[in-house]
Amino acid sequence: MDVTVALQHFDDNPAQKLGGCCCCWKPGTKPSHTDLVIRHCTNLRATSLLLLLFRSSTGHRRARFRFRARWLGLGFSLSPSPSEEPSIPFDGCRAQAQAAGRRRGWGGGGGPLLSGGRRRRGDLAAAAASLLADLTDSDDPDELAGLHSLADALVEANALDLLVHNLSRFSEADPDEAEAVHHTLSVVENLLELRPQLADIVCDRTKLLRWLLARLKAREFDANKQYASEILAILLQDSPANQKRLGNINGVDGLLQAVAMYKSRDPKTSDEEEMLENLFDCLCCVLMPMENKERFVKAEGVELMIIIMKQKKLAYSSAIRTLDFAMTRFPPACERFVDVLGLKTAFAAFMGKIPVNKKNKKESYQEALEERVISLIASLFGGITKGSRRIRLLGKFVENECEKIDRLMEFYTRYSERVKAETERLDSLDLDDLEMDEDERYNRKLEAGLYTLQLIALILGHIWHSGNSQMRTRIELLLRQNKLTKDDVKDILEEYHDNIGDLDGPEEKERAQGRTKEIIASLSL
């Protein structure tokens, strides 16, 4: 079914509207087309879109429809018209339009247009999805207010519910319906961009998360699978509620199944590569709640990430990032990592032994990977506090004449110089009467690498706290060579201690500060 769309804008003009609404009917189109005439009217109250669908034909069968758009509510209804030409069942008055609709048995809400009416439901639902995708997509700032009004009206009319319901009805084996799925996802994306708070609403009211999860399990890659991964990443980002919802429907295991397809092979195209990155973004987001970290461990996610790292494919760095999320403040994941021999793989990356490809030749890639590995090792020290696992972890820093301590001090001096340069720059701004508060100064230093420097200092502190004389001697030697002292490390740890947040609750904050105090105290000995 071909669709012709005309979009016209005009300002408030009594001559161009009837009772606050505007209507347009344009007969004479070809039978093989569905002609849609849209007028965008702005008045003192809000922006109204009136969509008038007046002819639909498929093959040799012609069906004529009446269509009404409720003022501001956009309650779409569609019904066969017995007349030769379509008619507009309202004169601009909302009450009269609703009454006319009830007399004709059209009902209210977003129903028949989005659900497809009674004839050729797939074609009609596909046309509606295509239309809404066009209407909700605009980069013009002048149209933003109207788009916000449209988004609100669609939500009020339960359009999201109907759109998601249609996803399960479309058969993507049919190219036209596959395109309709793409348009439907486009509408969802556009509405989320206009109203980010809809992320929680649509997942609470519909089965969108289930549909996306099922779609991502398909083995074959296509554009809709890529789009599904993008939408899921948007829904999970900054939404603890959706992260928990996905975990409750076995989403952690579903995402692991999706990324497992790439444990021993690389994506074939740039689009497929982007989809894989989206999948790992989803996995990292869903690992924010503690209960999902537990699901990750039970589903053998730690083992899968180690396998991906050992295969040294394109997903190598993404696997490290996922492990970092899984192990942060979650000792069971750290213990599993050590038990399944992950230390060797992690410290190979720590020493710079990473797979070579066109992607990781970039300096920014290597630096980001280094920071992830440093964070991962810091999580290991925080999660494994005693026993044989702790001994195995510390033993890595004794191997090959303490080469890993040498590497750690290399990182320490590099990031220390960066933070020092940023501190001097901020001090010069203060002298120029561009003073900033302490929180802003601290955030600027974090961006310059202070957080990574704090983690390096924390690892050094854990090593020193172990009491191993060989490692202590090596640390003192390297500090002297770089004109540093233990007091420099202590200063960094004290700043870290003072800025530990309570995101995980006051009890966890108190425990973290207590452990840091112990390390600081040991450096004084």
Automatic annotation (TrEMBL):
Q: What is its main location?
A: nucleus
| Residues of the Beta-catenin-like protein 1 N-terminal domain | 123-494
Kindly state which keywords UniProt assigns to this record, in alphabetical order: Coiled coil, Nucleus, Phosphoprotein, Repeat
Q: Where in the cell is it found?
A: Nucleus
- Gene Ontology cellular-component terms listed: spliceosomal complex
InterPro entries per UniProt: ARM-like, ARM-type_fold, CTNNBL1, CTNNBL1_N
Q: What is this protein called?
A: Beta-catenin-like protein 1 N-terminal domain-containing protein
UniProt organism field:
Oryza punctata
